[in-house]
Design goal:
This protein is mostly helical. Helices cover 75% and strands 1% of the residues. The chain has a two-stranded antiparallel ribbon. It is globular and about 60 Å long. The N and C termini lie far apart (53 Å). Bound molecules: phenylalanine.
Length: 447
C-alpha cells in the first residue's frame, strides 16, 4: 500500500521501460480503436482514409504525444503543474487545470460505457444476449433500466482498485497482463472473422482505397481521431511521463505507442467488418454498431455466445485500460495539491466522478427529461470534451512546447535532425491543424 505523502516525483512512483510502453498503449487502445476507427474508416474511403490517418498520426499525433511525455518527464509533477514548473507563467496554471478537469469529465461518461461492455460480455457468455432477436430494443431497454448505474459503480470500483495499488504495482501490472491478453483475443477473433463466408466483402469495405470519397472533412475527422486515439490532450501522457525514467528514450517510446495504437485499430476493423458483412448486417454508426449490429451477427454464428462473449470481453479490457489511465490524472493532481495519500485521493476522486456521472447515466433513457437542446447530458459531456476541450488543450500544448519552453531541445532527448523536424511540426504544422480542428468541431467553421 502507498505511504502517505507519496508524491508523483518520489522514487516509488515509477514505470519500468517496457511497463511504461504497455501502459501507454493500454491507454491509447480503447473504444476509439474498437468501434470509432473502423466505422469512420469504412465511411471515408477505406484504405484511403487509413493512409490519411497515418499521415495525421505522424504529422501531428506523434509530435504532440512526444511533447506531452517530455513535459511530463521534465516537470515531474501532475498535469496541472508541469507547464508552470517548466517556466510557463501563471496563466499556464489555467491550461494545466483544464488538463485535469477534462479527464475527470471524460471519465464520468466513459466509465458508463465500460459498464455497458462488462454487462454485454456477461450477457453474451451466458447466451442471454441472443434470447430474443430484437437487439436494438434490448439495448434501449438496458440503457433505460437501473443496470447501467450498477455497472457504472462496479467499473469505477474496479478502476479505483487498480489505481490504488500505485504506478508499478497497479497500472503497470494491470497492463502487463491485459495488453497481451487483448492481442491474443484480437488475433483469435480476427481469424474467426476473416474466415466467415463472404468475409472478403467486409475486408474490401474496410480497406479498399477509394480516394474519391476523401474530402477536407475526412482530413479533419482523421486528425481529430488521431488525437483522441492516442489519448492526447487528456493529461494522461503528461502524468505518465512524470513516472518515466530519465534515461528512457522518449522518441522510441512515442513510435512504439503509435504503432501499437495503429495495429490494434487495424485488427479491430478486420474483426468488425467481415463479421457484419458476412451476416448481411449494415455497418452502422457508433454504439449501435457495437451493441446492436454485432450481437445480431454473433447470434447467427456457430459458437456465437463464445465468440460474442470474447468480443465483449475484448472491448471491456480495452475500455478498462483506458479508464485506468484517465483516473490517474485527477488522482495525481489531488495527491500533489492536497498532500493526500494515493488511497485517499483514489477513493475521493472516484466517488465524486461516479456521482457526477449518475445524471449522465440517467439521461440515457431512465429519466427522459434530462435533455438539453436535443442532446442528453451524457452526449453533452462527450461532445464538449471531444470537440472543444481536447483540441483546445492540444493547441495549448503545441504553443507551450513550440514557443514557450526554453529547455525543449535537451528535454526531448532527440537527435538534432529529429529534433528540428519535431519542432517544425510543433511550431508550424500542429498548431494550425489543431486550430482548424477546434474551429470545425466547435461548429465555427463548416466545410
Ligand atoms: N485513446 C482512447 C480510445 O481510443 C481514448 C480514451 C483514453 C478515452 C482514456 C477515455 C480514456 O478510446
Amino acid at each position: 500500500m502507498s505511504t502517505s505523502n507519496n508524491r508523483s516525483g518520489s522514487t516509488k512512483e515509477r514505470f519500468s521501460r517496457f511497463g511504461f510502453i504497455l501502459a501507454a498503449i493500454g491507454s491509447s487502445v480503447g473504444l476509439g480503436n474498437m468501434w470509432k476507427f473502423p466505422y469512420i474508416t469504412g465511411e471515408n474511403g477505406g484504405a484511403a482514409f487509413f493512409l490519411l490517418f497515418i499521415v495525421c498520426l505522424v504529422l501531428v499525433g506523434l509530435p504532440v504525444l512526444l511533447a506531452e511525455l517530455a513535459i511530463g518527464r521534465n516537470g515531474r509533477a501532475s498535469a496541472a503543474s508541469s507547464f508552470v514548473r517548466l517556466g510557463g507563467g501563471p496563466a499556464w496554471r489555467g491550461a494545466g487545470l483544464l488538463q485535469v478537469l477534462t479527464p475527470f469529465l471524460i471519465l464520468s461518461f466513459y466509465i458508463i460505457v465500460v459498464g455497458w461492455t462488462l454487462h454485454y460480455a456477461i450477457l453474451a457468455f451466458s447466451g442471454r444476449l441472443f434470447a430474443d432477436g430484437d437487439f436494438g430494443g434490448a439495448f434501449t431497454a438496458f440503457s433505460s433500466s437501473y443496470w447501467p448505474l450498477i455497472w457504472q459503480a462496479i467499473s469505477m470500483v474496479l478502476v479505483g482498485l487498480v489505481i490504488a495499488k500505485g504506478v508499478a504495482g497497479g497500472i503497470e501490472k494491470f497492463n502487463k497482463i491485459l495488453i497481451p491478453s487483448m492481442a491474443v483475443l484480437l488475433v483469435l477473433l480476427m481469424v474467426r472473422s476473416v474466415t466467415l463466408p463472404g468475409a472478403s466483402e467486409g475486408v474490401s469495405f474496410f480497406l479498399q482505397p477509394d480516394f474519391s470519397v476523401l474530402t477536407p472533412e475526412s482530413a479533419l475527422i482523421a486528425l481529430g481521431h488521431a488525437f483522441f486515439s492516442l489519448s492526447l490532450g487528456m493529461g494522461i501522457l503528461m502524468t505518465y511521463g512524470a513516472y518515466v525514467d530519465k534515461n528512457q528514450s522518449l522518441g522510441t517510446a512515442t513510435v512504439a505507442i503509435g504503432v501499437g495504437d495503429l495495429l490494434y485499430a487495424l485488427i479491430a476493423g478486420l474483426i468488425i467488418f467481415p463479421t457484419t458483412f458476412s451476416f448481411g448486417i449494415a455497418p452502422d454508426e457508433g454504439a449501435r454498431l457495437v451493441f446492436i449490429a454485432l450481437p445480431a451477427a454473433f447470434s447467427a454464428m456457430p459458437l456465437g455466445s463464445l465468440f460474442g462473449g470474447l468480443f465483449f470481453a475484448l472491448l471491456a479490457i480495452a475500455a478498462l485500460t483506458s479508464a485506468v489511465s484517465i483516473l490517474e490524472v485527477p488522482v495525481a493532481f489531488a495527491k500533489e495539491q492536497w498532500g493526500w495519500s494515493r488511497t485517499r485521493a483514489v477513493y475521493t476522486v472516484a466517488f465524486i466522478c461516479f456521482l457526477f456521472g449518475v445524471p449522465l447515466a440517467l439521461s440515457n433513457g431512465l429519466v427522459p427529461g434530462l435533455m438539453i437542446g436535443g442532446r442528453t447530458l451524457f452526449d453533452w459531456v462527450d461532445f464538449i470534451t471531444a470537440n472543444i476541450l481536447l483540441p483546445l488543450i492540444g493547441l495549448l500544448i503545441t504553443i507551450f512546447a513550440g514557443y514557450r519552453w526554453k529547455n525543449v531541445a535537451e528535454a526531448s532527448g532527440l537527435r538534432p535532425v529529429w529534433f528540428r523536424l519535431w519542432l517544425f511540426s510543433l511550431r508550424y504544422i500542429a498548431p494550425i491543424l489543431m486550430l482548424l480542428v477546434l474551429l470545425y468541431t466547435s461548429g465555427v467553421l463548416s466545410i
